[in-house]
Automatic annotation (TrEMBL):
The lineage of its organism: Eukaryota, Metazoa, Ecdysozoa, Arthropoda, Hexapoda. This is tRNA (uracil(54)-C(5))-methyltransferase. Its EC number is 2.1.1.35. SUPFAM superfamilies: S-adenosyl-L-methionine-dependent methyltransferases (SSF53335). It catalyses: uridine(54) in tRNA + S-adenosyl-L-methionine = 5-methyluridine(54) in tRNA + S-adenosyl-L-homocysteine + H(+). Residues 405-414 have a biased composition (Polar residues). It comes from the Eukaryota.
């Protein structure tokens, strides 16, 4: 990242070189990896594929053995996988029996024939509620035939062998290729509650079928506490929660800041976020539906506090370029926290945030100051990385001693702020 930042903005080289001399060749301080409190059975959401077990030839509900692009079509059972909770395995096995007894075959990704495609499972670690979303390709089934399929599913989990799963919420989903100009049918609620509830840092969260929620609840508490520790929000801070999902990050920071404004593409997730704020008696939060690149500028104009902190938790590929430009243009924005489950994929965002001031990139560059990895995904090679960035005034870099150099200047407060590099001192400061 340091090399690419200097390549994109050569004026940063003295600053990056100084950072490298302090932090063992890195462009910012890197704290130790923070462990997940739970390492086995930690996933609260899984999407199981329905396919054929190539060893047994049987219909199986599990995981594909590799990507379809690489030629894998076989599906293997999940019994031995340590990161999946037992209740999810039980749900997959039970639905597998339903599929095996069905007159309808499983979907074949090569011929595009067959019906049963997917089982999405959500499990609340707080309440123990189980949500199932059964996905199938309807092919040429009539509405009457589809209704029978749905009635059979409902009866299986309500009165049949699936009753042992204790399903709190059951949905049906059409999964097929979208045709131009046509929308796929929405998820259809078949049984039980429309939402399940999860508890995070003492707050209760309503979770709908398609809303984003961190898949490791206990590690998410470590993650969100780390966000607060890195950024130190105050009563004079407006937090802009970008790609906010059900509002979990913003709501967990709400008591530490003066205002929270959330941006999310899915309307259902924004409904969840608003409901979560109300259920937890949090009154300093507002949430807005839309693409971040389209509405971010107008949302930021609603900020009533002098200091703006953006928290970005985008999809794996990173933040849209237009949204990033809006962040650079916001004069009051002095700090940014970027959460990434794939830092390599999001690397371009970090480079663009640090580019020199221009007609496109207004304001001083945003550069990484501290970072901390959180082990959100035990038993895998993946890690969530939190990068904390601040604006750096290149005109001031040569006028102060390195030990006293400020990382950003907040014009709304009229004062220059200094940060120490000691993690213990940062915690005391917070």
């Amino acid at each position: 990242m340091g090399h690419d930042m200097v390549k994109g903005n050569p004026a940063l080289k003295p600053w990056v070189d100084k950072q490298r001399s302090k932090y063992n060749g890195l462009p910012c301080e890197l704290w130790d990896v923070r462990a997940s409190p739970v390492c086995d059975g930690y996933r609260n959401k899984c999407e199981f594929t329905v396919g054929i077990n190539e060893e047994t030839g049987e219909r199986t509900v599990g995981f594909r053995l590799g990507s379809y692009v690489q030629g894998f079509t076989g599906v293997g059972p999940v019994d031995c996988l340590r990161h999946i909770p037992d209740r999810m395995k039980e749900a997959a096995k039970t639905f597998e029996k339903f599929v095996q007894a069905s007159d309808l075959g499983v979907f074949n990704p090569e011929t595009h024939e067959g019906y049963w495609r997917q089982l999405m499972v959500r499990l609340s670690t707080g309440s123990g509620q189980l949500m199932l979303v059964v996905g199938m390709h309807p092919q040429t089934l009539s509405q009457e035939e589809l209704r029978k399929v749905k009635d059979d599913l409902k009866d299986f989990f309500e009165n049949g062998e699936g009753k042992t799963c204790n399903v709190a919420s059951l949905y049906f989903q059409h999964i097929m290729r979208r045709q131009a100009g046509k929308e796929l049918p929405p998820l259809e609620h078949l049984m039980g509650k429309t939402h399940i509830y999860e508890t995070l840092l003492g707050l209760k969260f309503r979770v709908s079928p398609e809303a984003f929620f961190q898949i490791n609840t206990s590690a998410a508490e470590v993650l969100y506490n780390s966000v607060a520790e890195l950024s130190c929000p105050t009563e004079n801070t407006t937090v802009i929660d970008i790609c906010c999902g059900t509002g979990s990050i913003g709501l967990c920071l709400a008591k530490k800041c003066g205002q929270v404004l959330g941006v999310e593409l899915l309307a259902q997730a924004v409904d969840d976020a608003k409901s979560n704020a109300k259920d937890n008696d949090i009154t300093n939060c507002d949430f807005f539906v839309g693409r971040a690149e389209d509405i971010l500028s107008s949302v930021m104009n609603r900020a009533v506090k002098g200091d703006i902190l953006a928290v970005v938790d985008p999809p794996r590929a990173g933040l849209h370029h237009r949204a990033l430009i809006h962040l650079r243009r916001a004069e009051k924005l002095s700090k940014l926290v970027f959460l990434s489950c794939d830092p390599k994929a999001a690397a371009k965002n970090f480079v663009d945030l640090s580019r020199p001031t221009s007609k496109t990139y207004h304001g001083a560059p945003l550069v990484p100051v501290r970072a901390v990895p959180v082990d959100m995904f035990p038993h895998t090679s993946h890690c969530e990385l939190i990068v904390y960035l601040e604006r750096v005034d290149l005109n001031q870099l040569g006028k102060t001693q390195p030990e006293q150099r400020s990382f950003y200047h907040n014009s709304s407060e009229g004062s220059t702020k200094h940060h120490t590099s000691s993690e213990e001192e940062i915690q005391l400061q917070c």
